[in-house]
Amino acid sequence: MTSIPSAGALPIEIHDLHKHFGPTRALDGLDLSVAEGEVAGFLGPNGSGKSTTIRVLLGLLRATAGSARLFGADPWRDAVELHRRLAYVPGDVTLWPHLTGGEAIDFLSRLRGKPDPRRKAELLEAFELDPSKKARTYSKGNRQKVALVAAFATEVPLLILDEPTAGLDPLMEAVFTERVREAAAQGTSVLLSSHILSEVEKVCDTVTIIRAGRAVESGTLDELRHLTRSNVTAVVAGDPARVAALDGVHDLQTHEDPEGTRISFDVDNTAMGSVLTALSGLDVRSFTAAPPSLEELFLRHYGDDVSADGESTDGTGNAPGRHAAAPTTSEAGAR
Amino acid sequence: MSTAVAPPAVRTAEPARGATLTGTGALVRFMLRQDRVRLTVWTASVVFFYTYFTFALNLFFDDPAAMQGRAALMETPAGIVMGGPGYGLDDYSTGVAMSNEGITWMVLALAILSILHMVRHTRAEEESNRSELVRAAVVGRHAPAVAAIITLVLVQAVIAVLSALAMVAVGDLAVADSFAMTIGSGLSALVFGAVALVVCQVVGHARTATGVSLAVFAVAFVVRAVGDIRELGGSTLSWFSPIAWAQQMRAFVDLRWWPVALSVVAIVALLVLAAVLASRRDFGGSLVETRAGRPDAAVTLRGPLAMAWLQQRWALLWSCLGLGLMWFASGTMLPGIGDMIGDMVVDNPVLAQLFGDDPSQLAVGFISVLVLYAAVCCAAYAVVMAQRPKVEESSGRAEVVFSHPVSRHRWLGAQLAVAGLGTAVLLAVSVYGLWAGAAIAGWEDQGFGDYSVVVWTHLPALAVFLGLVAALYGWAPRLTGLGWALVAYTFVVGMFGQVLDLPDWVYRVSPFDGVPEVFSEESYAGDLALLWGVAVVLTVLGFVGFRRRDLVTG
């Protein structure tokens, strides 16, 4: 029961995993793997099965069918041994109301067996957490910090993070991102579940997108981007109708500007060459092209699925045509 | 008071001085609606107890001799602590007994109602952020507190009127004295409600506020008791307790109304103090900052067993203290009750039929009832504590623990071990408390050894309660509440079974049926072994089920 085949086995390997709660199929044939030293993003909207997957991996839930392996071992049967080698941060942390944050951190570190006071102090400072307050007085963000400090305080080969930054302010999110990068640099594998795309984009090597209990897309960030569109904004003196007419240009919008006509549109990456050719004849005053953000990937993906399913019950509820326009917000513009 | 220092611009925005009370009416209606079930149950329960005691006193003490026996008991220190100041003892009647003995307990019940009501509608609301929404609406600063006071006064008034009417109707008691007693009790209780409101301004948490307010009541209880023991009928010290202000109206003896004024003055003074304090603090803030805890855990906080102990120890301590004192006090009354029942039996042939005529056996019968009460209390404790794992699981704390190298068996074992040990300690404290009280009061028919037998023969029955909840937790966590059904069943069968003459199997279901009668010589090894067996099987089932099932969060 305690012998865990470790050499060569992937930290996380899930194949055709099913988990049913009565008639509900929370997981419906999920595939997911995380290689050693890899930071894997696990994206999906609420209720898509992210937390269920993680709970199966932690041995809290028993899989209905299919296989889930951690370091080659069974997460249900060998839970205790496996948990020596991983740390977990839930998305909604509940603590012992009468213990202070510091006490909770110590208790959890001691359960894992290797408390390191220096590291704890250093993390408390980085996350700006007061450990002497009772947990019931902590805000959601501070409870989250307690779980993060406890997780990062011990060195483990695998981190499982379930929407870990819920309630953190942007400064603390940056601290978190830095810690994940640090851990990855030391060879720790990370599974980061999130619906905050920028977070995944910042730290992840690979991304798996889950929907209705099934992985609908997975690969490296570059692979996913390659398949999709970029966002272009330009100010031109000439008539932009020629650009609008090109194949692969979507959702072109024009806006009269003192310097000329401001146009913005999405373009299939395969059609970028012909767009540049067309633009060069229009006396371009300014030009920016942004690679697609995950936000766009994400919405586009769900949008396509939604349209394929007709009126899906999925919560995103976006029609495909609107997606390309949606991310022309700060996220896309910043690139 | 805030308008006096407010700059002119603010004054125009807050045109009237009464603006701090805007919205009070709406809040009163809202609170009454929100609490309609809770307040109805409270009212019905209190009125029921007034009715029941009036009825019972009339029924059992229609014989003047029996009533004088009770009066004699009320002169003893135990009688004064558990009863009242001890007036009108020369001519003890139903009304005098209600007034002398009942007021302490009525004030206790009504004070708990008052404290919970005030904390619930002020500090608890603030803590939960619900009242942030309310206060952001067109509602004045003092409106929630004033609305809470108004609703409380309304409820107390309804209870006082209905209770007095019940006493008049059922006991045919004097109208003025009945109203004096119920109104006096209600106003005394309101003093503690006003105390709670002041405490809510000072401390930052609802639970702390409730605890401090109840502690103030406990002090008032002790002051009254000590004061009355110093001088029968009440000494100067007694007057420092609001409970005495109701008792000293001396209803049904020589009624006087002026002590009520003390309650009224105290309530007004406390409310003014609360308003002043409230104006000086921020929303959600407190005058006493919560003190910082320890940044590092004690070295002993290591592993699930230590955590379970940490979580259950205060409940265990308070249960031991409260129940231990209660059974100790009951023990001190044993000799008096033995004599009293003995006298009554001699004078009253009907009672002799009911209780038998051997005084020592009467006392044993009485002790066995007390032991049953104590055991049911311990069973309730066992059920509460055996449900701790479920609380941990649904709150999500268990999930965090289980993501560490902790097995299901180790965690559940730790929870149940602490629960079981606590139950055993509570049983021992209760039973030995009874023994100690009886021994100090001079009752020596049974010794330490006899009571020790009572302790260990009850242990397997309590283990069955623990095992049942554990088994339910392992296989059907939603049904752990069924443990309460067994507690209720045991109590009803134990108390009323003999009277109702039920079929044999009905008794066999109750775990306490396997426990021998107290201080009897009967052989019980077989029954006890069976109980232990059932308890072990149920517990093992619980472990097996819990290892097999999914963890349920939320």
TrEMBL record, chain A:
<protein>
    <submittedName>
        <fullName>ABC transporter ATP-binding protein</fullName>
    </submittedName>
</protein>
<dbReference type="GO" id="GO:0046677">
    <property type="term" value="P:response to antibiotic"/>
</dbReference>
<dbReference type="InterPro" id="IPR003439">
    <property type="entry name" value="ABC_transporter-like_ATP-bd"/>
</dbReference>
<dbReference type="GO" id="GO:0005524">
    <property type="term" value="F:ATP binding"/>
</dbReference>
<comment type="similarity">
    <text>Belongs to the ABC transporter superfamily.</text>
</comment>
<dbReference type="InterPro" id="IPR003593">
    <property type="entry name" value="AAA+_ATPase"/>
</dbReference>
<keyword id="KW-0547">Nucleotide-binding</keyword>
<dbReference type="Pfam" id="PF00005">
    <property type="entry name" value="ABC_tran"/>
</dbReference>
<dbReference type="InterPro" id="IPR050763">
    <property type="entry name" value="ABC_transporter_ATP-binding"/>
</dbReference>
<keyword id="KW-0067">ATP-binding</keyword>
<dbReference type="GO" id="GO:0016887">
    <property type="term" value="F:ATP hydrolysis activity"/>
</dbReference>
<dbReference type="GO" id="GO:0005886">
    <property type="term" value="C:plasma membrane"/>
</dbReference>
<dbReference type="Pfam" id="PF13732">
    <property type="entry name" value="DrrA1-3_C"/>
</dbReference>
<feature type="region of interest" description="Disordered">
    <location>
        <begin position="305"/>
        <end position="335"/>
    </location>
</feature>
<feature type="domain" description="ABC transporter">
    <location>
        <begin position="12"/>
        <end position="237"/>
    </location>
</feature>
<keyword id="KW-0813">Transport</keyword>
<keyword id="KW-0046">Antibiotic resistance</keyword>
<dbReference type="InterPro" id="IPR017871">
    <property type="entry name" value="ABC_transporter-like_CS"/>
</dbReference>
<dbReference type="InterPro" id="IPR027417">
    <property type="entry name" value="P-loop_NTPase"/>
</dbReference>
<dbReference type="InterPro" id="IPR025302">
    <property type="entry name" value="DrrA1/2-like_C"/>
</dbReference>
UniProtKB/TrEMBL annotation, chain B:
<keyword id="KW-1133">Transmembrane helix</keyword>
<keyword id="KW-0812">Transmembrane</keyword>
<feature type="transmembrane region" description="Helical">
    <location>
        <begin position="453"/>
        <end position="475"/>
    </location>
</feature>
<feature type="transmembrane region" description="Helical">
    <location>
        <begin position="143"/>
        <end position="167"/>
    </location>
</feature>
<feature type="transmembrane region" description="Helical">
    <location>
        <begin position="209"/>
        <end position="227"/>
    </location>
</feature>
<feature type="transmembrane region" description="Helical">
    <location>
        <begin position="315"/>
        <end position="342"/>
    </location>
</feature>
<feature type="transmembrane region" description="Helical">
    <location>
        <begin position="362"/>
        <end position="384"/>
    </location>
</feature>
<feature type="transmembrane region" description="Helical">
    <location>
        <begin position="416"/>
        <end position="441"/>
    </location>
</feature>
<feature type="transmembrane region" description="Helical">
    <location>
        <begin position="39"/>
        <end position="61"/>
    </location>
</feature>
<feature type="transmembrane region" description="Helical">
    <location>
        <begin position="257"/>
        <end position="278"/>
    </location>
</feature>
<feature type="transmembrane region" description="Helical">
    <location>
        <begin position="482"/>
        <end position="500"/>
    </location>
</feature>
<keyword id="KW-0472">Membrane</keyword>
<feature type="transmembrane region" description="Helical">
    <location>
        <begin position="179"/>
        <end position="202"/>
    </location>
</feature>
<feature type="transmembrane region" description="Helical">
    <location>
        <begin position="102"/>
        <end position="122"/>
    </location>
</feature>
<protein>
    <recommendedName>
        <fullName>ABC-2 type transport system permease protein</fullName>
    </recommendedName>
</protein>
<feature type="transmembrane region" description="Helical">
    <location>
        <begin position="529"/>
        <end position="546"/>
    </location>
</feature>
